Amino acid sequence: MSYARQMLGSYRSDLTLDVDAEVLAAVIEAAADCAQACGADTDADLSEPHLAEMVACIRLCLDCADICAATAAVLSRPASWHRRVVRPLVEACVAICQSCGDECEQHAPRHAHCRVCAEACRRCEKACGEFLTIMK
Amino acid sequence: MSYARQMLGSYRSDLTLDVDAEVLAAVIEAAADCAQACGADTDADLSEPHLAEMVACIRLCLDCADICAATAAVLSRPASWHRRVVRPLVEACVAICQSCGDECEQHAPRHAHCRVCAEACRRCEKACGEFLTIMK
Amino acid sequence: MSYARQMLGSYRSDLTLDVDAEVLAAVIEAAADCAQACGADTDADLSEPHLAEMVACIRLCLDCADICAATAAVLSRPASWHRRVVRPLVEACVAICQSCGDECEQHAPRHAHCRVCAEACRRCEKACGEFLTIMK
Amino acid sequence: MSYARQMLGSYRSDLTLDVDAEVLAAVIEAAADCAQACGADTDADLSEPHLAEMVACIRLCLDCADICAATAAVLSRPASWHRRVVRPLVEACVAICQSCGDECEQHAPRHAHCRVCAEACRRCEKACGEFLTIMK
Asked: Could you give the domains of chain B?
């Protein structure tokens, strides 16, 4: 079991989480993993010989890494959320994961690192989408 | 002139920024400053004797620091924005700066550090608001 | 296989990593996981009734989260490391994981979240230590 | 007066900072500013036509942004430092600011954004150096 899941299971019992702990743990893990994959993909892209083709991918990965990291950090502290903060943040995360996943997918046939990064983006996009559905 | 403003003035001339550079520099600076102030206020809050009263403030400052830092980072790379990413991110930033500013303001009469942090939140909220107005 | 491990396996073959990919992937994952656990533990600590006892733990978790996140990010881009940068960064990571792990361990008997966080700190401390051994 | 300086002046009087507040505020501001400048320079570098020449600069800016941001965050919470954590962290910050400043300086004659970024790196390197001198 991931630390994220274990931590959510260890809160004092009088703390009421208004989202399912499994769904929350899934989005925290997916966002943290996606931040890592996008950071790594930036570096891998910069090692490719046809750099001009990779610029859009690098830029999207940089934004995706920053937004996923902030999302994972904020969602990891669920004791006292403000819905009007968390909702647009997770919406921004869905949007950048879509754009970054689309771009990485185009490079996936040639670059294995972009294929892996696209997977990470898709998983995060999906996990964030489920989270938004249950939190409304 | 701040580095943020200087950097925006140094881009190649064929790069078209679709927002006013002054407004953009102002929101980058305000968000970066607010991230710093909120981080510092967390620490100052934890030094206060009546800790239970400061818990909400600490929590909001932690979220505000993370979201402002991500906002400053993403806005600092304006060459190729995706409006559907930037808009909800800045909306999340406005929302957390409002909530964190409101909470800090309540503690301002007793704690000078909360007064300073409230100022930083208000300035960031205002700068983000202006940015959202011109980017639509 | 983690994204971190997959990404390291997907670099172009003419890129020479001067550390073992398994060891590197282990430290990236451990640092990213520890950053998440420490962020979550901050929030869990703030939910405890005896707050004054948790202040040291909260402070260490905040520093540990920031330093582990930076370590994971820098190590995730291994194509062109500067040894004189990476070494002190990972040393700082070892030091904070030791201190944070020690503090969390003291609270582990009463607080399950501190037990989980101590585990994450110990694993990161160990992974960073192995990394420092092989990189010299 | 910057928020960083104001926050340091607002701590409860019985809190003993073991470093001069002016020096500490200077390094916090310099590190936060350098993180912003390096993030912006990454984006500006990616807009240049001769991309292959900019790869080393982009990579150093990415590491410099992450390490400076972590340094600014940790130093912004000075109530309870651990010297064995802060010292190597600031040493890593000096090292990356030196390397990144050297690289940016080489591009400064052609790229104004690299000149600005080099200035930010030099200022942070100097501020960190002074901090290390007084903290020993």
From this structure: 3-9+18-134 (1.20.1270.360)
Q: What is the ipTM of this complex?
A: 0.95
Q: Is the pLDDT of residue B21 over 60?
A: yes
Q: What would the mean pLDDT of D89-103 be, rounded to a whole number?
A: 98
**Burial of residue C16, with CB atoms counted within 10 A of its CB: 0-12 exposed, 13-18 middle, 19 or more buried:** exposed
Residue C92's nearest CA partner among D68, D94, D84 is D84
A62 contact residues in D (CB cutoff 8 A) = 42-43, 62
- Report the pLDDT value the prediction gives residue A12, as an integer from 0 to 100: 61
Q: How buried is residue B2: exposed, middle or buried, by Cβ count under 10 Å (0-12/13-18/19+)?
A: middle
Size (chain A), residues: 136
Q: Which residue of D has its CA nearest to B43?
A: D77
Q: pLDDT, tens digit, for every residue of B25-76?
A: 999 999 999 999 999 999 999 999 999 999 999 999 999 999 999 999 999 9
Which residue of chain D comes nearest to B4, CA vs CA? D37
Restricting to D residues 89-128, those with a Cβ less than 8 Å away from any Cβ of C are: 89, 91-92, 95-96, 99
Residue of D70, D74, D68 whose CA lies nearest to D98: D68
* Nearest-CB residue to C36 (from A72, A112, A119): A72
